[in-house]
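User: Sequence in, structure out. Go.
Assistant: Echoing your sequence, followed by the structure tokens.
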Amino acid sequence: MYQLNKVDKTFPGVHALKAVDFTIGRGEIVGLVGENGAGKSTLMKVIYGAYQPDGGSVTVDGETVRFANPRQAMDYGIGMVFQEQSLIPNLTVMENIFLGFEQQFVRFGVIDWKRMAAAASAQLAKVKLDIDPKVTTANLSFAQRQLVELAKVLTLEERIDGDLVILLDEPTSVLAREEVELLFSLVRELTSRASFIFVSHRMDEVLELSDRIYVMKDGAVVDVVAQADAKVESIQHKMVGRDVDKEYYREQKQKPYDPSNVLASFENVSVAGGYKDLSFDLHPGEVLCLVGTEGSGREAVLRTVFGLEKPTSGTVEVKGSPYGKPNARTAVERGVGYVPRERKVEGIVNGMNVYENMTLSQMGNYSSYGVLRIGDERALAEKWVKRLAIKTPDVFKDCGGLSGGNQQKVVLAKWRSGGSDIILLDHPTRGLDIGAKEDVYDMVREMSDAGAGIILVADTLEEAIGLSHTILVLKDGEFQKRFDGAPGDKPTLFDLVHHMI
């Protein structure tokens, strides 16, 4: 049994964990939910040994422990499958699985690659992944990499005597439903030799998989709910401290867009390997959503507008002028802002603080004779921190240390503060809790009201329907159907799915 007793953790200006009690028994699957900033990530890092508690105690099978680092936690059978994935893309699968533990395969100073491959195959068999362990990890799909992460954690079985405790941090965030079902089936099978802590913002999945659910708010555990007693609405209320707005997608705030002006235009545009012969116009105030299955070409359209994908045919115009040689710099100069799916990789710069991230795309506005006007940068950031209710001790905080929802707000502030009026949103609510999603929906409506044109790739079909003025359905890179989404007259899920598959 793994147990936390009255665990506290404080950072400058933030009381991240407040007397947290947490228990997980043998073979249990325990859910952990809460808003971004509720303390989930800090709690996971304490369990995993990345953070040391300031107060309270941690016990494993009755033994009081204090992990100085994750390596020590691993010696007690505690492993973590990361949301952002910790695998190194240019290494092979087997090298990733045994990274840091290669010594067991060394003979006379040389790694026995054949033995490592055989051992890796045995680990991959545990997660039912039939791939060549010598393949480069970058060539795998996201779902395959997720299983390699799990196989890597399961190598602890050969190094410890007891059972494992495996932390799953948003493991389903970009998986298709059939991939989620396979993962859940595997997790249930593995409970014979491991316990799991499952962190997710998808409440239906938490209720489906977990035996018990811990609910966190403002650094404290506010409830522990048995699966049989769990109800989505009740848990959401405890997470946010209020009832979730019945007008979740702010449909009552949706106003008609201006069809007389065009901000961006596609005319028979094709991108090799992405989509073909796509035509549409984006208007001021319009939320245009691209809907389709993974690989339908949705994301490639966004990247084309931002100048990251070069059309093989057709014409892309932004504010009446065609792209000559498309690139991101030209797009930014024309008022295009891009909020990417991988916000930690492409959206923010870890190591740079809040104000630096906000002004990154508009440095020319904050420099004189080559010298940055830091005071002006700070003033702008403080204004947007207040306007968007960004939770940060101050604008000097490293952006990488903020919660996912607050990082997303910083990215949106970067573009809006610079005057961008064409906003590209690629899964903007991925990995966000219920409260942070509502904040994003409010921002979408606010940007639309201000005359910005928004192209959205939503996280769910419900989100696409709720937010959009216009929906374009793509399948295998080809346009299938256009739907208008006026309030009270929006398409149904069946309408969209019928044309998607």
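User: And one key feature?
Assistant: The two ends are 46 Å apart (CA to CA).
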